[in-house]
Amino acid sequence: MPLRGHFNRRKFLKEVLDVPFAFKRVDAMLYITNFDSEVEYLKRSFETLEAACEELRNSRMFLKLLEAVLKTGNRMNVGTNRGDAHAFKLDTLLKLVDIKGTDGKTTLLHFVVQEIIRLEGSCLFGTNQNQTAEKTPISAFQDEDESPFKLGPAEKFLKEVLDVPFAFKRVDAMLYITNFDSEVEYLKRSFETLEFIFIGIRTVEICCLKVLTCCLKTISICIGLQRTFVNLATTCVPSLSTKSFGQFGYNMHAYIRSSSPAQENGMPREMEKQNRMSHVLAIPIPAQGHINPMAQFSKRLASKELQVTIVIFSSKVLKHTRRLGSVQVVTIDFDGYEGKISLDDYLRQFRATVTRKLPELVAELSTSSGNPVSCLLYDSHMPWVLETARQLGLFGASLFTQSCAVDTVYYTIQEMQQKKIPPEKLLVTVSRFPALAALEIADLPSFVQGMESESEYSSLLNQVVGQFSNFKDADWIFVNTFNTLEEEAVNWLASQRSIKPIGPMIPSFYLDRQLEDDKEYGPSLFKPNLDGCNEWLDSKENGSVVYVSFGSLAALGGEQMAEIAWGLKRSGCCFLWVVRESERKKLPINFAEESSGKGVIVTWSQQLEVLAHRSVGCFMTHCGWNSTLEALSLGVPMVAMPQWTDQPTNAKYIADVWQVGVRVKANEKGIVTKEGV
User: Which residues form the signal peptide (predicted)?
Assistant: First the structure.
């Protein structure tokens, strides 16, 4: 049945559109167009080959040749384990083709064929030495050299024929001579065909060997380049302190430019710089606490002469944000998690979307920018992006947005789970880990605290521990921290593989001011409520305002919201409280109106701008890692009220290790009362 009878044009068009590169699409269309003719050509070629092989199988002389080769091989190998062979491989005949005479044309195969023809004739014309029949008068003549007269060709043939003892053999000999020329010609054509086939096989083998050699050399070069880049990153990126980001040396483009042949060829430096700029594609988790450090790191990389594009999979990002300085921002619509489906289903959908879209985006950006994407920089919660990077032939770098202490906890759990250590023993081991501060079970991340039972956090625990599934395979690991803050944890994690602390990832305006116009993170999932906020802060005395914010994800219960509200009111302090729109219904009735003299409630704020304000005296925080780094960088004391995930561990370090804040105590129900506030 013709192939085209089953050809689905729509399906083919869909598959072609999924091919990321234009040249590959054209190749696919040309392949389909020429498919039938190519198949027909191959059929004819195989039919020719089959006919030639059939002729050889039916050739008596070819069988004689094979028999002669077998006997010769056995004779040459007498006394060895090969000396009694019953068969041999056909490719042995290639050796007969390779060996040529002094004329450079006649091969050993030709010589063997000629000898077989000569011997075959001798067998038909030769005299049976054991025959006792009476000889004819002519047979009584002496040998040619001894005869009194010279025999001509006809007489010689007649003599040989008459010497044959049986009439039937005489007839066979005469028929053989009659057909000899045609048999020889046929045999020559057969062996020429065989020689052509063997030469073709040898040519294909040589070509395949050359292709394989080129592939191995290419792989070797790629591995060498990868190792060079890894060594470059290892030596170029120094450990960074709070105020030393200006010494940041991670600059892959500088290496490419220094090793480029452009200068040798006389290419202008500006043109060479434009043509060889490295392109990094950054992919954060679509949550504000993950977008912020990724955006800031992208701006830092762009300041080091790399082209950087950040892609955010969210339908909530403000669409007018197209650039962050020199960083291009791309948004792809994807609904955030709102509890309508299970978290596992949401994560599967997110992974499927990113995996499907990334190859298309890489191809599009590589074409439109003129600088092919060379590296995927992904959030550590998306370790599977490394698989896509490898499939596309790109480097893969992971950004860990938590503290190094929390990373150490998750890494240790992942290693111990692989060793099948029971949860109860695992918890004790982690809490007493030497690279960490002395931790109680309550100081561990919330997902870890409930690991002994099948809690609602089990899937989230798998998610955070899964960050380290290919931890040692990524080309680079970056961590949003700095050595002087977590020296022991950083050193221990660095002993497992090379990592680079690059924090704190906050806008340069509030840190070292090395980047111009870098006063805010950039893409936001929330619209700030700035109505009168700055004016209100300006009207307050220095250090008199309590800033309260529990981040973008934590959802407090109604009872807890009420306790915080009445605690703030009873304190008599001025306060600025961020309550997301979805949480406002949990506030006590008329609380906003009753506290308008002392406090202001907003749905979202520019947190850095607030923390840097002279009137803010302390920060009541959920202890998210970004908020912690911001408060540390701006010197604002903290009231630690952790809620979940990594926040209990951060609170432990804030209160007891760094001693830059106090931690409120919860009652037996897990509620912080108004008295505690």
Answer: none
